[in-house]
Specification:
Strands 8-7-6-2-3-4-5-1-9 form a nine-stranded mixed beta sheet. The chain has a five-stranded parallel beta sheet with strand order 21-20-19-22-23, sandwiched between helices. It folds into four domains: 4-141, Phosphohistidine domain (Glucose Oxidase, domain 1); 151-321, Aconitase, domain 3 (2-Layer Sandwich); 326-422, no CATH class; 425-549, Aconitase, domain 3 (2-Layer Sandwich). It has 559 residues and is of the alpha/beta class. The chain has helices at 63-72, 88-100, 111-119, 151-157, 163-179, 200-211, 239-254, 283-291, 304-311, 343-354, 372-385, 414-423, 443-452, 469-478, 480-487, 517-527, 536-545, and strands at 4-7, 11-17, 51-53, 79-82, 106-108, 122-125, 129-132, 135-138, 140-141, 184-186, 190-192, 220-222, 279-280, 313-315, 329-333, 360-363, 392-393, 409-412, 433-441, 462-467, 490-493, 511-514, 530-533.
């Protein structure tokens, strides 16, 4: 492999290196540049002004928005130095340079040269070389993509449809070059992830594109936003935040997106079918669409999702191509007897740790009967620890039998699962808040929780469920919502745990428990709260008692 200048530029300074990828969303504070992911080796360190050296990123598609915000705030890394392919922060860096004149260089090195950079204390970057310990590592320019463009693509690229679509097509073509694509593919629908007011950059980007006349060309849904759109004033959300969050959502609606406000678009009536090419962002949704629905979408970074929706076109690369959907690692699970539903997010979490950059095949689960919600929880947790856009589960996902079983194999034991349980259970037993709905709860999950939510909720322990408007309406119509509210649960639409802030997140709550592997990972950094994790039944029982279980479940204990 030849080392390349993905986004050329000059930089110099100290090297900050890590062998583990980082999700910028939920992992880096865009106002300080400090790593906030409590599970990451760089936690507590600043990336501002550093030459950041890591294999690639992982986790959320929203990392591009965090990257743009860091650049606009003047606290971005001096440069990114990767070993593997990386799209998310690269797209953020590209937007920072193209739209806001705040360029951040991005470099991809060969494995040997990456090892030299990772071991260095400081480095200097030019347009054509990385200088490490007096060694000059030449950087080749990114090859110009020889794209087979349709006449309509060329018209958009020439600005015939206005400046917004011209920028969209320019960025799509640049990403195609980065991904090695030689053609674009039509997509039937989009899903916008960057509508959460996690940073000022998201609002600035969306309103800039709307003012330029941006408009989607294909049916497009929207992710959860940062407020309950119709009720935030009554809920005590400060107007300074609530108005900006609503403006961000409204900017995408103005551009033609459908105000679905859910991080689980696969629960909508517009969910794609097997083999359908779509242009989705939001990591859990992308992984579920590829894995469970057998639809096809790359894990598009935020902002690229809008550009794809505006053009109806995406680079023909990655898992749009059948060959790239093949598993590269077999993860065999020694299934503990008596396991409960907590095993599914735990398996997703550990699968992502074992396959941080590649698609795995999970075996050993053929005799189980996971629900679609179990697979949803697995996909979401997998997306927190892996950069891969999908996984296969033998006996349960539609494409698992379409490929040869990988020769490389690792085994997950009960001890491995116990380690993950301990990693996600660092908080105290006393619980102030029980959090459900990351990703948004389905109607079936609401019913299951309502069946468990009987008796009296513990005084001083809040319980919050987040759902999409579609599920909220169904739960209200059949009486499930009334049962949850009778127990004292608050059920919020539009917003999800990855974007909840005070006062909806109770200011007095210092500890929380969740059945979501995804939120158990992100919550310490995002909320500043101590966290416990457990099954749906354990979480419901904790809402009754105010105390999390003192020990791991029986199925995780050694004989």
């Amino acid at each position: 492999m030849t080392s390349q200048a993905i986004i050329p530029g000059a930089a110099s300074g100290p090297v900050l290196a890590c062998a583990e990828g980082l999700s910028f969303w939920g992992g880096v504070d865009p106002l300080t540049g400090i790593v906030i992911d409590a599970h990451h080796p760089l936690c507590g360190q600043s990336i501002a002004g550093k030459l950041l050296v890591m294999p690639t990123t992982r986790g959320s598609c929203s990392g591009s928005g965090v990257m743009l915000d860091l650049a606009l705030n003047g606290i971005a890394p001096a440069a990114f130095i990767f070993r593997e392919a990386e799209d998310v922060v690269t797209l953020g860096a590209m937007i920072a340079g193209r739209m806001f004149d705040r360029p951040v260089p991005v470099v991809r090195l060969s494995p040997d040269e990456f090892a030299l950079a990772a071991a260095a204390r400081s480095a200097e970057l030019t347009d054509t070389a990385l200088i490490v310990d007096d060694k000059v590592l030449p950087l080749a320019p990114l090859p110009v993509a020889k794209l087979d463009l349709a006449p309509t693509d060329r018209a958009m690229l020439a600005g015939a449809d206005g400046p917004a679509r011209r920028i969209a097509m320019e960025v799509i073509c640049a990403m195609a070059a980065l991904q090695g694509a030689t053609a674009l593919v039509d997509v039937t629908q989009g899903h916008i992830d960057g509508c959460i007011l996690a940073n000022t950059a998201n609002l600035r980007f969306a309103e800039t594109m709307a003012e330029m006349g941006g408009r989607v060309m294909v049916p497009t849904t929207m992710n959860a936003i940062s407020v309950d759109h119709g009720n935030w004033r009554e809920q005590g959300v400060p107007p300074n935040f609530g108005l900006r969050a609503a403006r961000l959502a409204d900017a995408y609606v103005k551009m033609g997106a459908r105000p679905t406000f859910t991080c689980a678009p696969y629960l909508l009536d517009s969910a794609p079918e097997a083999g359908e090419n779509i242009g989705w962002s939001e990591s859990n949704a992308v992984i579920f669409a590829n894995t469970v629905l057998a639809a096809r979408t790359v894990k598009h970074p935020d902002y690229l999702d809008l550009f794809i929706a505006m053009t109806g076109r995406a680079p023909l690369s990655g898992v749009y191509l059948s060959a790239n959907r093949a598993p590269r690692l077999r993860i065999h699970v020694d299934l503990p007897t008596g396991h409960d539903d907590a095993i599914w997010p735990m398996l997703g979490y550990i699968a992502g740790q074992l396959a941080p950059n590649s698609i795995p095949l999970l075996t050993g689960l053929e005799a189980t009967a996971p629900s679609r919600d179990d697979l949803k929880a697995m996909c979401a947790a997998f997306g927190t620890t892996s950069a891969a856009p999908m996984l296969h589960v033998a006996g349960h996902t539609p494409e698992a039998e379409d490929f040869a079983v990988p020769t490389e194999r690792v085994t997950v034991s009960r001890a491995d699962l116990a380690r993950v349980w301990a990693e996600l259970n660092r908080g105290p037993r006393k619980i102030d808040l029980v959090a459900f709905g990351s990703p948004h709860f389905s109607l079936e999950e609401c019913r299951a929780l309502a069946a468990l939510a009987h008796g009296h909720r513990a005084e001083g322990t809040a319980m919050i469920v987040t759902v999409g408007q579609n599920v909220l309406g169904q739960a209200r119509a059949e009486g499930t919502l009334a049962r949850l509210e009778a127990f004292g649960a608050q059920v919020f639409p539009d917003i999800c745990w990855c974007s909840i802030t005070e006062p909806l997140l109770p200011p007095q709550a210092r500890s929380l428990m969740t059945n979501s592997g995804k939120y158990a990972h992100y919550a310490p950094g995002l909320s500043g709260r101590d966290v416990r994790f457990g099954s749906l039944a354990e979480c419901a029982e904790t809402a009754r008692t105010g105390l999390a279980p003192a020990t791991p479940p029986n199925w995780l204990r050694s004989d």
